Amino acid sequence: MIGSGFIKGIQNEMRKDDGVDGDAQRLSQLVWIIFLKVLDDDEKQKEFLDSSYVPAVPEKYRWKNWAALDDGITGDALLDFVNNDLFPSLKNLEINPANKRTTVVKEVFSNSFNYMKNGTQLRKVINKVNDLDFNTSTDRHAFGDIYETLLASLQSAGNAGEFYTPRPITKFIVEMVDPKLGEKVFDPACGTGGFLTGAIDHIRKEVKTPEDEQLLQNSILGVEKKQLPYTLCVTNMIFHGLEEPSGVRHDNTLARPLISYGPADFVDCITANPPFGGSEEDGVEDNFPTSFRTRETADLFLVLFVRLLKDGGRAGIVLPDGTLFGEGVKTRIKQHLLEECNLHTIIRLPGSVFAPYTSIATNLLFFTKGEPTKEVWYYEHKLPEGVKAYNKTKPIKLEEFEPIKEWWNDRTESEVAWKVSIDEIVKRNYNLDIKNPNTVQVDELDPEEVLADYRAKQAEVKDILEKIKNELTEALAHHDC
User: Fold this and answer.
1) Per-residue pLDDT tens over the stretch 229-275
2) By the 8 A CB rule, do 52 and 160 touch?
3) Which pLDDT does position 161 carry in this prediction?
4) 49 conformational bin, left if phi > 0, alpha if psi -120 to 50, beta if neither
């Protein structure tokens, strides 16, 4: 049975190689290997179905011709081939307009590396991957487990600001945004592609003809700036039937001036969890209008989302609490959002959703561009009964969103749902951090009252100490007598 043990077994083989230093390099090594295996299995299937199909990878460098045999080249000969032939050739692969996958292969290898120095150990790793055949239903099903294991490894080896979205949240957001066949769906910070694969699965239910499938193929767009999640993402796209995932680019969406995004870039749907808790490199904020300039990535992405949506376009995104209550630039960004879009729903999530990677409290924001906000509905997603916090063994589950789905199209106020008018939000200086008014809370004390009470008690203590001092003085005086 292929599962988490399969990945751990490969990583244990890598640990025996002196060239691979740490989890991040082991993961990077494994990802390009699995990318080539998934690609080759998929291309073998395409050749079987279409004799005129031209593979993206030249024949000499296809997995089946150098890696597939258990008794194939190994040791120094394998290292020499990988380092001095395979990698240079794929880094400089000629782009074939007839197969846009060549663009993806070249991009994947432009910043990938073979860290392993022991050709025999590399052969052992390759042979373990050969146990997989992604053209069989069993191993296709197993890919989900492999992907989730790689994702968990990526989280553990990640940096601040890299928090990947639990699958129940991506599925819920995609379902509520409800992208339709023919609509362009974009994730400008797509990570490993969780939202995009969710959109593919959601839209494919509408596909009835080859023309419908082509519409779907052309409607999935994403950008990821980090090499490792990008490679995982395009592997995921190919596995989910995106024939030429050239619409998913290795780039930084924020590195382009906001004003340069025009109608050709506008999209129907955005589903995203932009990085938060980190900051962009110097100069990126200069791509934005002066009033919106900040180094906080989540805030910059929010401005970008508003820009990229068509009129009538819909978005479902994850944002931290800090964006909701922040002031200064954050206030101006929220005002811009509420004036340009109808922010109709905010789902308040428990603080442990992204545990153990971060305890930052997050929210799901849903908005439509083209009309200003009149009121915002809030829904408090509470922890399941008996659960004090989410964690690795008790993560958030898809079925927990069922009550929200039932409420979505027939909204009424309740102990977990409430609405706030735009007038109230403006009075609050666009502070969207509005707590559930139905939650019983301990009354907050007025600071002046607290200070006055403290001073009164201090005076009482002083008076008592003075009395004790006087009594001791009198007692001592009496004793001396």
Assistant:
1) 899 899 989 988 898 898 999 999 999 999 999 999 999 999 999 98
2) no
3) 44
4) alpha
The residues, any chain, with a CB within 8 Å of residue 52's CB and separated by 6 or more, are none
CA dihedral 234, 240, 246, 250 (to 10 degrees): -20
Is the pLDDT reported for residue 481 higher than 60?
no
C-beta neighbour count of 253 within 10 angstroms: 23
Say what percent of the chain tops pLDDT 70: 89
Tokens of 343: 């922010």
Round to whole Å and give the CA distance between 330 and 321: 11
Going from the C-alpha of 418 to that of each of 355, 376, 377, 437, 443, the distances in angstroms are 27, 9, 6, 8, 20
Amino acid symbol at 391 = N
Q: Collect all residues with Cβ–Cβ distance below 8 Å to 464 and sequence separation of at least 6.
A: none
- Per the document, the length of the chain is 481
Q: Look over the chain and give the mean of its residue pLDDT values, rounded to a whole number.
A: 88
Torsion of CA 147, 153, 155, 160, to 10 degrees: -140
Cα–Cα distance measured from residue 309 to residue 336, given in angstroms and rounded to the nearest whole number: 14
Distance CA 280, CA 262 (A): 23
C-alpha distances (whole Å) from 299 to each of 97, 249, 337, 339 are 37, 22, 11, 16
**Helix/strand/coil percent split, the chain, to 5:** 50, 10, 35
Which has the closest alpha carbon to 268: 230, 215, 208? 215
What is the distance, to the nearest Å, from the Cα of residue 134 to the centroid of all Cα atoms in its chain? 25
Alpha helix ranges (H) inside 101-136? 101-110, 119-129
Q: Which two tokens stand for residue 74?
A: 């190994």
Q: What is the mean predicted confidence (pLDDT) over 317-328?
A: 93
Distance CA 478, CA 465 (A): 20
- Residue type for position 186: F
If phi over 0 gives left and psi between -120 and 50 gives alpha, with beta otherwise, what is residue 291? alpha
What average pLDDT score do residues 194-207 get?
96
> What phi and psi, each to the nearest 5 degrees, are found at residue 167?
-55, -40
> Residue 418 is encoded by which pair of tokens?
């409430």
In one-letter notation, the amino acid at residue 368 is T
DSSP code at position 52:
T
Q: How far apart are CA 162 and CA 56, in angstroms?
A: 31
pLDDT for res 157: 58
Kindly state the average pLDDT of the residues 103-121.
Answer: 94
Residue 444 has pLDDT above 60, yes or no: no
Ramachandran area for residue 22 (φ above 0: left; ψ -120 to 50: alpha; else beta): left
Q: Mutual orientation of helices 119-129 and 4-15 as an angle, nearest 10°?
A: 170
Alpha helices by DSSP H, listed for 277-327, are 297-308, 321-325
What was the pLDDT predicted at 1? Answer: 46
